[in-house]
Design goal:
The structure holds two protein chains of two kinds.
Chain A (H helix, E strand, L loop, with lengths): L15 H12 L5 H11 L5 H4 L16 H4 L6 H7 L8 H9 L20 H14 L3 H18 L3 H18 L8 H15 L4 H4 L1 H9 L28 H6 L11 H8 L4 H20 L11 H6 L12 H22 L5 E2 L8 E2 L18 H18 L7 H4 L2 H29 L9 H21 L12 H5 L3 H11 L4 H13 L5 H4 L12 H25 L4 H14 L2 H4 L3 H18 L4 E2 L2 E2 L2 H18 L24 H12 L3 H24 L4 H18 L9
Antiparallel strand pairs in A: 1-2, 3-4
Helix pairs in contact in A: 6-8, 10-17, 18-20, 20-21, 20-23, 23-26, 24-27, 26-29, 27-29, 27-30, 29-31, 31-33, 32-33
Chain B lengths: L1 H9 L3 E6 L4 E9 L5 E8 L14 E3 L4 E5 L7 H41 L1
Antiparallel strand pairs in B: 1-2, 1-5, 2-3, 3-4
Classes of the chains: A mainly alpha, B alpha+beta.
Chain lengths: 735, 120
């Protein structure tokens, strides 16, 4: 309505209707809270408060041109016709025209502003005018506006004192007429309505219902307003609760979340459901009042957010608080009522369906929580049992025939297998969510260990962990079905994503079992089966992109927990895993993949570190037997890779002809470097002779100047990883 | 309440709401309620020329049932958390269904029993 479409300098709206409305609003001396606030908001920091004070603008009763109530009531009032009829009533404002002209409207032609013509335009004409003016004067407005506006306003003020008085008289009259029927609803009535509306919103489980919002704000940190100090932790589980003060206007939209703990459920309810408009206004008013107060109150500084519960809860923190104003006390009353509603709701939960005794069928009660379904989805009650029906069919066959049909486990009914795996992934997710929820509640438990609540918590936690672990099905490294259930689990990206979250809760033994299983079935993992760098797949295609994504996800999600575990175990376990890896997987083939290289690097590195004199893991000194074993393993690895060292590098030019970035072989260089550390002289010779070409190629590339300096440096650094391990350096390479 | 919870986190962000009548409004989300009605602040219509009547409108209230799409900005959304929230929501609706099913089944059978009892 403010016409800022044309630029910030001009305060007057362009159409008659909005003009009248805004000026009318600015003149009302409304005691009603809502309207006052709306006025405040609409006035928009009083940007054009001065201009609107002018009586000249305030002549008409909005769209009806001072028509009496008698004229309007009783029949269908034709606004359009009425407007047309009363066009002439609009006086010619020479000042207005001057203003409009001065503001940049071109006065030469007939487009001298809406009212300057002395006509009232219909809506269509107004729009047409606006479009016209928009095209003609896109930039002319803001430039000359401020000074001209000031001069016009000045001239306005010196208008007739008589006219001013007359206008004021009329204004007061109108205002009285309008407010004759105010206060129809008593305070009790209003609060009654509010109570009804809020009771629809209340939830008895804010942690579940408002989960996303709550966790999001916890994780992102929250907006902290000025002058707000952290709330004293009131039996909350999240020590990261920061006092949140959103600006008053947006606080109405964003109920400031409280702590997550159930103990603060009340607060939570109240904060969740502050959407009623009146309440918003109350709260805005309230928070607007509170800010200055809260700065001064000693001890406890309030959050100036719209949280009724806070005030109630921290009532005793009111030190030296001045006598409560009207709104504050009404707020307190309201919040007590909401309290009552909350308790009611908790006692008597409403069902989604109502079925009377003896009636055939049920009536569904639609609320915000269970809305009317536009699409009716029939719940297939046997959806879960499809996979169960397959199990007795599938596995007895496999068990009976030993390993003959191992390749068939997947092919027998791939769809069912897939669904089964997806089902188990979801079960793991459910269990992990439960675990995380329990962890959040853990902080609230009483400190003494034999309290029944603690026992309860422990049992629940253990149960959930058990469930997750059994669903994961990683305890048997070797299984009858091919591929291993864990490998199938990890073939989905959401399966990979849940692993780090789950590992967080697992015991060391379980992590060991998981790692063992992964290693034992490494070949069958999807990231390995992608082939090293997809020779057959064009490098820019969707499939390649997806493969790369999955590999990255694997490296970032699944590997770190296992690698972390590896880097902390004893040499015995490392040897065992190493042996298992080489035994179960075709090393030469698997090393073309990045995950395998990463694994081997860590394994080698760990065993090398443990072989150092004086190294020990878990306080147990390393056995010489183990050292011998690890050397054996190393040699075995070397021999199996002999002749294949070049293949671990990604192709420099992929099949599609695009040059692959020179930075992709970092992992290969790392692996070679780790390998070189433990190599004997003869082995080192072999290494060097095999990869010499590659080294030369890289160094040449770095020195040639075809690539930018930082990439060249990175290239050299990579090659140096390997060369330094041998005691050489890239600079020694003769070009 | 998942969408309501989600949009609460979007308050203050720039969104573009496309309505079922093809009007697309871009603005700052000011507030949202349980019916997913939106209040937008400082709006601008995406295709200005077709809707000249919206030129002077600064704030608007959009009824939730007329919204077709809401376009958001990706960095403001935490998809992993959203997945978790959706899972929890699914769990809780499942629980609700299970809770409401058995009682009604029981009443139906008793109703049929009494009907047949009275007939015979």
């Amino acid at each position: 309505m403010s016409g800022s479409f044309f630029g910030p300098g001009i305060g007057l709206p362009d159409d008659a209707i909005a003009l009248e409305r805004s000026s009318f609003r600015s003149h009302t001396n409304n005691n009603d809270l809502d309207a006052r606030l709306e006025t405040m908001a609409l006035r928009d920091t009083g940007e054009f408060g001065d201009a609107l004070e002018e009586e000249d603008l305030d002549t008409f009763n909005d769209e009806t041109f001072d028509a009496d109530v008698g004229e309007i009531a009783g029949k269908e009032f034709d606004f359009f016709q009425n407007t047309l009829d009363n066009r002439d009533k609009v006086p010619q404002y020479s000042q207005q025209a001057a203003y409009n002209a001065g503001a940049g409207f071109s006065s030469s032609d007939n487009s001298s502003g809406v009212l300057g013509e002395g006509r009232v335009l219909t809506l269509a004409e107004v729009e047409a005018k606006l479009m016209q003016q928009n095209q003609q004067n896109p930039l002319a407005m803001p430039l000359g506006a401020p000074e001209q506006m000031a001069s016009v306003a000045l001239s306005r003020r010196t208008a007739d004192a008589e006219t001013i008085a007359k206008r004021r008289e009329a204004r007061l009259q109108r205002q009285m007429m309008l407010s004759k029927y105010d206060n129809m609803m008593s305070r009790h009535d209003k609060e009654y309505i509010i109570r009804i509306q809020i009771s629809q919103l209340l939830t008895d489980d804010p942690a579940a219902d408002d989960f996303y919002c709550h966790m999001y704000q916890l994780s992102r940190g929250t907006m902290v307003g000025p002058g707000v100090v952290q709330q004293p932790a009131t039996n909350t589980s999240d020590s990261s609760v920061v006092g949140r003060s959103v600006t008053p206007r947006s606080s109405a939209g964003t109920p400031a979340p409280a702590a997550s703990a159930q103990g603060d459920r009340r607060k939570h309810y109240l904060q969740l459901h502050k959407k009623h408009h009146q309440e918003q206004h109350h709260l805005q008013q309230h928070s607007a009042n509170r800010r200055p107060n809260s700065q001064g109150s000693s001890g406890d500084v309030r959050r100036s957010s719209s949280s009724l519960g806070n005030q109630h809860h921290h009532h005793h923190h009111h030190l030296g608080r001045p006598h409560r104003s009207n709104t504050q006390s009404s707020m307190a009353r309201m919040q007590q009522q909401v309290q009552r509603i909350v308790n009611e709701a908790r006692r008597r939960p409403k069902a989604a369906h109502v079925a009377a005794e003896g009636a055939l069928g049920k009536i569904s009660v639609n609320s915000a929580r269970n809305p009317k379904q536009v699409i009716q989805v029939q719940q297939r009650s046997h959806a879960g049992s499809i996979s169960q029906a397959d199990i007795p069919r599938g596995s007895p066959m496999v068990h009976d025939l030993g390993g003959i049909f191992t390749g068939m486990g997947d092919a027998r009914n791939p769809a069912a297998e897939r669904r089964k795996t997806l089902r188990s992934i979801e079960n793991v997710y459910t269990a992990v969510l439960r675990l995380e929820q329990l962890i959040r509640e853990q902080a609230r438990l009483p400190p003494n260990a034999d309290h029944p609540a603690v026992q309860n918590w422990l049992t629940m936690y253990g149960e959930a962990k058990e469930r997750a672990w059994t669903e994961l099905d990683a305890s048997q490294p070797i299984s009858n079905t091919y591929p291993h259930p864990l490998a199938r689990f990890l073939s989905f990206s959401k399966g990979k994503r849940i692993i780090p979250r789950l590992v967080h809760h697992l015991s060391i033994d379980q992590v060991l079992a998981l790692t063992t299983t992964v290693i034992a079935n490494f070949e069958t993992l999807d990231v390995c089966r992608f082939g090293s760098f997809s020779y057959s797949v064009a490098s820019g295609s969707m499939v390649a992109a997806r493969q790369k994504e999955e590999t990255d996800l694997f490296l970032h999600a699944v590997m770190p927990p296992t690698l972390a575990f590896l880097s902390e175990t004893s040499l015995q376990i490392v040897n065992g895993l190493f042996a298992l890896f080489m035994e179960r997987n075709n090393v030469a083939w698997v090393t073309r993949t990045r995950p395998a290289l990463a694994f081997l690097t860590v394994l080698l590195g760990r065993s090398a570190a443990l072989k150092q004199p004086g190294a020990h893991a878990y306080g147990v000194p390393v056995d010489s037997q183990e050292i011998y074993q690890s050397s054996e393993l190393y040699n075995h690895l070397f021999n199996s890779l002999r002749g294949n060292f070049l293949s671990i590098f990604p192709p420099s030019v992929s099949s599609a002809g695009h040059a692959v970035s020179p930075m992709e072989d970092l992992h290969a260089w790392q692996f070679l470097a780790t390998l070189a550390i433990g190599a004997s002289v003869e082995q080192q010779h072999t290494l060097v002779s095999e990869v010499r070409e590659k080294v030369l190629e890289r160094v040449m590339l770095a020195k040639s100047g075809h690539v930018p300096v930082d990439i060249a440096m990175a290239l050299t650094a990579n090659v140096n990883l390997f060369l330094n391990a041998l005691g050489l350096d890239a600079s020694q390479v003769a070009t | 309440m998942l969408f309501y919870s989600f949009f609460k986190t979007q308050v203050g962000q720039q969104v573009t709401v496309e309505l079922k009548n093809d009007l697309a409004i871009q603005g700052t989300l000011e507030s949202v309620d349980q019916f997913l009605n939106f209040k937008l602040k400082d709006i601008s219509v995406v295709d200005e020329e077709r809707y000249p009547h919206m030129i002077s409108v600064k704030n608007c209230f959009i009824r939730g049932s007329v919204v077709r799409y809401v376009q958001l900005s990706p960095p403001t959304v935490d998809t992993a958390l959203l997945q978790d929230a959706a899972r929890r929501e699914a769990q809780s609706t499942q629980q609700q269904q299970q809770q409401s099913k058995p009682p009604t089944a029981a009443t139906n059978t008793t109703a049929i029993a009494t009907a047949t009892g009275s007939v015979s």
